[in-house]
Amino acid sequence: MGKKSVTNEVRCQISCLLKEKTKSNREIAKLVGVSEKCVRTTRKNNDIFGTPKESTRPGRPKKLTYRYQNSLFLQARKNPTMSNKKLASEFNSKFKNVKISRETVRRFLTSKVIGAYTAPKRPFLTVSDRIKRLKWCKERLN
Fold it and tell me: What is the pTM of this model?
């Protein structure tokens, strides 16, 4: 099972009950309707950060903002045969302050369910087909 998010109001309520020091973690958890682990985590956050709020998640911020995503999406839709490398170079020339790689373009387009362009398969013309085509064209020349 996944982690359920707890509202800030509930965290503040837990924090107030912890400050009273009259109830155990288990009693507070039953009273508020959360797990005992949630009460322990709220206590730890309160001790470390001075606030019952959950700490921010670590991680690198995304390189493509909403504006950049729209631009890249429109560019890919306008010319679906363009390669990811070419899309990346055009994007980099358009927006000087952000540099992206072809892998970033590929990951973004995959997330938007735009796959790689594949040329439609057509059968090769046989010799007899070429002769028939030439005959057909000569009949309709004039």
Answer: 0.50
Q: What is the DSSP string of 80-125?
A: TTS-HHHHHHHHHHH-TT----HHHHHHHHHHTT-----PPP-PPP
- What letter would DSSP give residue 69? H
| Segments making up each domain of the chain, as ranges | 8-49, 66-111
Place of tokens 């010319």: 79
pLDDT per residue of the chain (142 residues) written in tens, 0 to 9: 446 678 888 888 888 888 888 888 899 999 999 989 989 988 888 888 887 777 677 888 889 999 999 999 999 999 988 999 999 999 999 999 999 999 999 999 999 988 887 878 888 889 999 999 999 999 999 8
Q: How far is CA 119 from CA 80, 82, 116, 127, 128, in A?
A: 11, 12, 10, 24, 25
**Amino acid letter for position 62:** K
